[in-house]
Amino acid sequence: MRRVNHRKNQHDEISLIPKTISIGIFGGLIWATVAAVAGYFSFTKVTPKSFVLRSWLQTKWSDQWLGEVISICIISLLSIGLALLYYVVLKKFPGILPGIMTGIVLWFIIFWLFEPIFTNIPPFYELDSDTVVTTVCLFILYSVFIGYSISFAYQQHRGENN
Fold first, then answer.
1. Between vectors from CA 150 to CA 144 and to CA 154, what angle results, nearest 5°?
2. Alpha-carbon distance 37 to 87, whole Å?
3. Residues 104, 139: contact at Cβ < 8 Å?
4. How many C-beta atoms surround the C-beta of residue 130 within 10 A?
5. What is this structure's pTM?
6. Distance between CA atoms of 21 and 134, rounded to whole angstroms?
7. Strand intervals (E) in 4-152
């Protein structure tokens, strides 16, 4: 009986992985698109192409709409990793607070720790207040979307199995 229960728990964990992957893809797609739109309307000077392409490619096409679309797709794929990491570490914590904290930590990692990698992004102290506020809010919204969706799916799945 115990061995059967162990297999059932493994199967339950595996069945949430595809949902977590889709949450990561759609979270990256939605919020990177919102960031691109925010950049288009000059709420921020930092857009997805600023991180993904423009820091390494200084070509004409990477600064246009094609560069933004490719960057949004790459961010959607990278978002799978964050969603899986969130699933492993924080899935049992319901509510939006873990997502808010994750968004703030993620913003600090990108804008402080990885600042030397992203040569196209100005240092934090050179960013205008609109860019800082907009990007912090976007990172928080993105992380809350990922975190709340994953913890909700986990709690719902756990409730179905009990």
1. 140
2. 28
3. yes
4. 13
5. 0.87
6. 26
7. none
